[in-house]
Amino acid sequence: MTFYSPHQQAWLAHYMTLEGKAEESLTKTMAGAKVDMNPHQIEAAMFALASPLSNGVILADEVGLGKTIEASLVLAQKWAERRRKLLLIAPATLRKQWSQELEEKFSLPSFIMEAKSFNEAKKAGIANPFDMESAFGQPAICICSYEFAARKSLELQRVPWDLVVMDEAHKLRNIYKNDGAKTAKVLDNALMGIKKVLLSATPLQNSMLELYGLVSVIDPYFFGDLPSFKARYGRQQLEQVELAMLRTRLSKVCNRTLRRQVQEEGGISFTRRYSMTEDYRPSAQEEQLYRQVSEYLQREDLLAIKSGARHLVTLVIRKILASSSHAIQGTLQTMIARLEQKLPLLDALEDYENFSDLQDEEGIGDEELIDPQALQAEIDLLKDFQGLASSISNNAKADALVRVLERAFEKTAELGGSRKAVIFTESVRTQTWLAEMLATQGYDGQIVMLNGSNSDSVSKQIYRDWLERHRGSSRVSGSKTADMKAALVEKFRDDATLMICTEAGAEGINLQFCSLLINYDLPWNPQRVEQRIGRVHRYGQKNDVVVVNFINKGNRADERVFELLSQKFQLFEGVFGASDEVLGSIESGVDIERRIHDIYQRCRSDAQIESEFNALQEELKEHLEAKNSDTRRSLFEHFDADVVRRLNLRRGKTTAELTAYQQKMLLLARMTLQGNGDFSESMDGFVWLGNKYNLNWQNAEIGEGEFFRPHDGLGAALIEQAKTAQLPPVALQFVYERSPEQGQWVDVKGQIGNSGLLKVIKVSIESEAQRREQLLLLATNHHGEQLHAETVERLLQLPLAQAPLVIPEPDVSALLDLQQTLLGDFLREVERDNETYYGEEVDKLERWSEDKRIALDLRIKQLDQEIKEARKASRQLTSLQEKMEAKRALKQLERERDNAMLHYYEEKKLIEQEEDRLLEEVEARLATETRVTELFAVTWQIVANECEAAA
């Protein structure tokens, strides 16, 4: 039987959970993630975690390179450091997707905070629902939308957040403007001084001042104030010296990788997307229904819809109307019932699953929306609409779907894809009706439906079968929503031909095995369209993707929407669809959706529609025709060759470190389970109590096993057990044994027959900014020779000849000098790193004070120039009145210039004092406290195994 001591287990468990610099501690976070990270993503996370003094960074990789994974890795690292006050702010439409990514890939708990959950917590007596642990009894990453965060800024401000991640952060870049960006300003005030990670593919779009705005959200002391930034960097032609300085400064706060660089390194191979369109013309009845409901929604005197919710309600009804006559019939029926009962109309719109996201964006609550007076006429009108809708038996768009399906399958097969299609609709009723209709067209038994609830009997049966099939495996997460999605996606992948999805249902799922996407209903929000296509066209997709859209030839507005999304936003063609320059430049897809809706509401003729869409395209022109200027490229992008070389090095280093860490995990399992586990099957897993465990998450899922990782499950339990064990003084007799595959440890082999003392000490050096930990491995043999730390580490991995013998406390005074030497080395290493961090802060603050001083000089020069021009202009005046007024204005300018000069040195002194104060804060944050803990002290002996002895 093979023996391992609790002391060996404790050493290994402590070693695997040491805290330190990102370079040292990120490996264990990656070892627990269900995602194969690319080198550029690890580089980005390293960049974000590099300095404990940093106030934050901008991660600005091009669209499609996985900024979500980069930020999730940073959040996972903070979580591993037990920093649990984590906030994620994202557009309302992305909240669920973020929550699922964090749970599925990183096993991080999250909670979506919105009006309903916030109000429920308040009613339950929770003082501040944003304080997750206090509010809900356990920590979780708090996720909310920008609009909600701004509305609840006072509560947000009261939480001492460890980190805030802000997705689609270009929403904040106009914060420098006095007349706009209210949400950005409110959030900036509420989260002042909190470390932030901003995610944006386009941190700079139209003006250098946007760059100032975004960086000031992270650190108000990175640049001087706005006037000094304008004076220094806001000029049309920036001098090369200033440009080089700005580039150097930005390299400390902004990290950007391009798709072409990642492709060259070999991390991701991007496939193309092809567009197919199918025209259709609605029947006379369909056109009549559309026209009548549209005219109803355009009326100014509607009693059923209060003005506060007019935009939201009419937008949603229009979406349902455009989806199918079946969908609008059901909505009208529910609306009539709600109005007759004098109940809120908002509840009648549940067919449109993105309603809650829009509601959050609009800031509308569940207020009473019905005027109790004079509703009968509208109710009768709605009943007429409903009667017309119910009389329509055929939908022209549905006929077009049946026509185009086979052609689309042929195109997909030609491109190497499988016979599978995902069909998107914006209505749950349309989804159900399409499934029934397609079942009669030869697809019976080949259809899966995915929506926000999946309460239909077929979905429930698929879910039950999936649970039975994966019972006891790590595939079952315990979250019904996540498991239902997993079951339906697996059914689609393995057995079905068609998956009909609503937007809400498809959030957070990956469908790389499918390469045909059909937009049965087309959203007006370009970002939402890109998210949809991103379900199939993402890295991991091996085939070119086909995207099918329908064009309503009976509705000019619908045609212009498709033209805008297709031709202007370029969503459906090319290597990566919509460019990040365009998608990132629009402040919000919701704004465009609102503008399109306004056109539908206002226009009553094709001529009006043409005019309004032309005006919208002109308005969007500067975004849609965005040019990646040389200045922008030089600011954010590094030379391709340098980046590719760095990414290649990172891939090799990460693979080696991850493999080494996983082997340590396997060794810990071998040590703690002793002879109870079966480790014979493979090099990356074992069997224990009938359960399979695997270090590779993909192999774990394929082989119906459990992912063995350090953060949860058996891995976390074994680590905790080993770290808390009692470790009395013992004698350990190691057996040297190495297989030919493992190679020889010559240094350890040279100690066979020797014995000596061994001591393991844990050192923790803690500051306000960071904790650094290290194990000091001290050992001597009986000749008094010191063993190198690497030799001691190898020694501790060997099995024992017998169970350890408890002995009296050994005299380890001979190890004191070695202990002081190693401790001194570690202290100096930490001090060197702290000097680097301090130097970076000094450099940043010197640049900040330089900005401020340059602004003072420029202000005086500017006033001198204005005085000179004013004098020149006054000499050309003719009337006495004009000359007197000019003289007064000149005197005012001279007084302003004289005051500026008078206070010049005082202002410089104030800048220097502020710089000194900030540096004192930095010094305080780096002040360290050292704690030394002895884990154990033992005597050791090493013998050869029988094979070695015979040799």
UniProtKB/TrEMBL annotation:
Domain Helicase ATP-binding: 48-221
Keywords: ATP-binding, Coiled coil, Helicase, Hydrolase, Nucleotide-binding
Record-linked Pfam families: Helicase_C (PF00271), SNF2-rel_dom (PF00176)
SMART domains tied to this protein: DEXDc, HELICc
Coiled coil segments of this chain: 853-903
Source organism, top-level taxon: Bacteria
Protein name: SNF2-related protein
Residues annotated as domain Helicase C-terminal: 404-583
Organism: Aeromonas bivalvium
